[in-house]
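Hi C.,

You asked whether I'd gotten around to modeling the 123-residue construct. I have! Everything is below, sequence then structure, no commentary in between.
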Amino acid sequence: AKQDAKVLTVFGAGAQAREHVRVMLTVRPSIRVINIVNRTAANAAALAGVLQADRPEAGLVFQIVDSAQAEDVEKAVRAADIICTTTNTSTPLFDGKWLNPNGVHLNCIGAYTPKMQEVDVAT
């Protein structure tokens, strides 16, 4: 990922998401905005609360994104310098055409069987 990455978008709000965000903040302290894309807003908000408590001095901005709102998901993907997908979905989470043409780092760790697919075939 770019050394000066500022926007992290994470899909999922469970333990894997939490730990991946923590790692990204450690290796890229330049991150200022974290988009948490999840189907359950309460879970995303809970994750934001935990992460904010980890680093209250960092001035992080958390944005909760409803995974059912394609336009909002697209905005979160287009804005991202780093994307972490931490779900067990069987369908792609976003259209690869939305990725920043200037470069984006992807950590896609949720799909661990042949029937799972977090990103589209083109990505």
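If it helps when you're writing up: Residues 20 and 26 are 10 Å apart (CA to CA).

Thanks,
B.
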